[in-house]
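Section 5: illustrative case.
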């Protein structure tokens, strides 16, 4: 039971990183990213391939972040001359392209068989009992550092400029702010955070395959950010842990409703997820931790 709790909390931390990345792009800058699973996969495969070639784990994580940032820049540049809603379509296509590349390019990703034997830091030293505790502490530390950085950014003039772009980018441009540069930076940093989450996931599981990066991950993270509070970093973190705990709790419905086939059980779990989202939106339409907009300063 202890191992299961450690596993759940570790996945919750990884989802929290994804939620914070989405909250930066969507909640702060108003850029909808429907390809979150793609950046997650880029980070996971980037780090797995790099460490498999002999790079240290820390270097693999750094490479994953760089791959995510570069992918984010490319995606954003590709939509510069299109309306903002096209970014959502392009990112959705990007995620599917990444999954298909991982599925078919066996020379690089080993195809549907996936990459196994990914280095797990300190596992040989700590053993099967100590590694889950260590990795949970490591993921929690990364979540805390990213949370502190994004919270500081959110309260800075830079963060307020992002919120202004979200509300009215034409007015923000008229005020003299470099809207394009802000959007490029926000989206690429958000993609880098998602890629870091993918790298942490790969080295925790020691195995990745295309099946791990289905679009359902993006739906779960949107659910986490929506339930926690769009535009608030703490809301995304709270929502991510809540979603993971809720998803894991639904595994036990077979004990409550006997006679369900595995396919039926999976369908009921998804129905419960949708019901939970509707309940949250009805009771807390702005999320569990709604965004607190600062009041305008009084005129002197």
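Designed sequence:
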């Amino acid at each position: 039971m202890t191992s299961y709790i450690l596993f759940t909390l570790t996945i919750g931390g990884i989802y929290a990183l994804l939620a914070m990345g989405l909250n930066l792009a969507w909640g702060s800058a108003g850029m909808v990213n429907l390809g979150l699973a793609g950046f997650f996969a880029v980070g996971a495969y980037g780090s797995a391939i790099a460490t498999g070639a002999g790079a240290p784990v820390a270097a693999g994580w750094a490479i994953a972040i760089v791959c995510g940032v570069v992918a984010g820049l490319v995606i954003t540049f590709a939509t510069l001359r299109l309306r903002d809603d096209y970014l959502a379509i392009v990112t959705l296509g990007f995620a599917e392209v990444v999954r298909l590349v991982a599925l078919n390019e066996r020379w690089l990703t080993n195809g549907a068989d996936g990459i196994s034997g990914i280095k797990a830091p300190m596992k040989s030293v700590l053993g099967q009992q100590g590694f889950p505790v260590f990795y949970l502490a490591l993921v929690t530390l990364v979540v805390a550092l990213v949370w502190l950085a994004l919270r500081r950014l959110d309260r800075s003039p830079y963060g307020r400029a992002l919120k202004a772009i979200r509300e009215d980018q034409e007015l923000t441009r008229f005020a003299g702010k470099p809207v394009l540069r802000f959007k490029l930076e926000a989206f690429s940093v958000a993609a880098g955070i998602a890629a870091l989450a993918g790298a942490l996931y790969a080295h925790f599981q020691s195995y990745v395959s295309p099946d791990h990066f289905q679009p359902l991950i993006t739906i779960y993270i949107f659910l986490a950010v929506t339930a926690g509070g769009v535009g608030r970093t703490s809301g995304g973190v709270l929502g991510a842990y809540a979603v993971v705990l809720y998803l894991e709790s639904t595994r036990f419905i077979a004990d409550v409703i006997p006679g369900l086939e595995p396919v039926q059980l999976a369908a009921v779990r998804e129905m419960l997820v949708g019901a939970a989202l509707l309940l949250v939106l009805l009771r807390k339409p702005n999320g569990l931790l709604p965004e607190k907009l600062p009041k305008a300063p009084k005129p002197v």
